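yo

u said u wanted the structure for the complex thing, so here. seqs first:
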Amino acid sequence: MRRLLWPILVLAALLLVNLIFTPGFFSIQLREGHLYGSLIDILRFGAPLILVSLGMTLVIATGGIDLSVGSIVAISGALACLQISQDQGLFAAVALALGLCTLLGAWNGFLVAAVGIQPIIATLILMVAGRGLAQLITDGQIITVNDPAFKLIGGGYLLTVPFGILIVIAVLAITVFLTRRLALGMLIESVGGNAEASRLAGIRARGIIVMVYAFAALCAGVAGLMISSNVSSADGNNAGLWIELDAILAVVIGGTSLAGGRFSLGGTVIGALIIQTLTTTIYSIGVPPETTLLFKALVVTAVCLIQSQAFRDKVFHRRGRAAPPRPVTEEKVRVST
Amino acid sequence: MLVVAGLAAATLAGCGSESGGGSEAGGGGGDDAIVMGFSQVGAESGWRTANTKSVQDSAKEAGITLKFSDAQQKQENQIKAIRSYIQQKVDVIAFSPVVESGWDTVLKEAQGANIPVILTDRAVDSADTSLYKTFLGSDFVEEGKKAGQWLVEEYKDASDTVNIVELQGTTGSAPANDRKSGFAEVIGADPKFKIIASQTGDFTRAKGKEVMEAFLKAHPDIDVLYAHNDDMGLGAIEAIEGAGKVPGKDIKIITVDAVKDGMQALADGKINYIVECSPLLGPQLMDLAKKVVAGESVPARVVTEETTFTQEQAKEALPSRQY
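structre next:
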């Protein structure tokens, strides 16, 4: 739990900044029969990023990385909208889109686990080719659809709550159950720690790796449905553009090591919320568009520095130089939790 | 001596382009079909899609071989595409720059290879205007001014402050810069007009919606929305409706472009005024390309013909709208 302390503090600080600039920031009302407020916005627009980040967390926990999720977001939205615009029925469209995404994820996993290609290269292939595939599906156009049921996924409300948030809660609950209540999480961490040793210990490392990439792609597929549903259109060029980088950032801010071997789903959710809150903050306090990226970079740098044990010790415990090895031992203790 | 040699080479290359084109299109049987390399910004909106289609269709009609590439909103892709056109020795290069600055190097390469360049839709800010033959496109400053003039007219009797929020296009792009400055220039004459928030929505629906959601919460007293294109305006309309306000009434909306979805919203009363920015510049482009390749002189600036639409005019124009 201590691992989550800093991300939570950062998130709280960001929200506090908003409260100063926008007095009504924390107010949540019931408007037009649904919840309405800035906090709801953050959750709603952050939902796709949280989903993609959850998948990314498990991939990173195995010591891998998945750069293709942004393209998969685009493919999923494009395929679903194309099917709906051809009157194929909502369920068929969604099932086909998610099915293809899972297949693409399994392909990533196959390249990594069976062929032995470095994850960053294996998924780079689909990152580049996938966006082309999305444009092929949409024929380079923006497909606009008008289906109220499809609209529900990313832009609708169920019992006043945005449906996207409910999807995230469901996926999060299932993932937490599978990885923390069952042995799956331990197996993933074991593979991330040392795939060969895990295999010798009787764990089917390859199967686990293929599974996490397929899961990451499935999450990205759902996120793609949400993003395209929110604006009732599929945009092969821009949907999910750079979301893979935001997702990796969310995972890292959340305290999951890029080296693999351990992960924190709660941390990832908070990390994704930090990124979305930052975006919303930029809009609400009126950072000029020309300086938006610099502003983001500064905040993210600050977040990373504040999470670094070595940095904190240097800055906050200058006088305690006489006792240097303390942080190292603490790091080891953390690994075992 | 060197200059003379350079000139000679240039003339030779000018003549040589025909034989080069001939060998390339040898199987095609065309005597001297012009080959045009066109680098499009992307497919970020319905407007752009119509623009792409217009260029492709009119190239076919004019008998010009079109090599088309989509830069996906990235300048580096566009520079790569232009370099590859130079290597392929096309007869003329046309492109819509993603952003305004940073083109001098690649344009000089084209000039060095003696390939004329035509800018379409968006301008570049190069000081050296000899780097391109002509710029065909809309006058974005004028569009911003038209939007501002309607607003001034609409609120001429009001004495209270008019709170305006602005959804800008892609940061650094010519339409975003110019539509912003043209608009600001006109409304700046009267201090009651106040732009209380201005953010980029990247010309996309998704971003337009997301930014407008945040605007609505941070500023409860918005009177007018000025969006640099229809798509961002359409995204914002969803956000405004979600906030329980009536777009077009509680918040007056002005957009630029006049694509079909935008015109539909205008006819439905959700948008109040649209300044047209016509994407159908293909025929004009092919005309210019032929003249440029033939060595005829062309004006340095060609403006596309455009108008504006009110809600009533939109209802009339909607049935015959192509894009």
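Chain A touches chain B through 40 residues (CB under 8 Å). Chain A has one domain: 2-286.
cya
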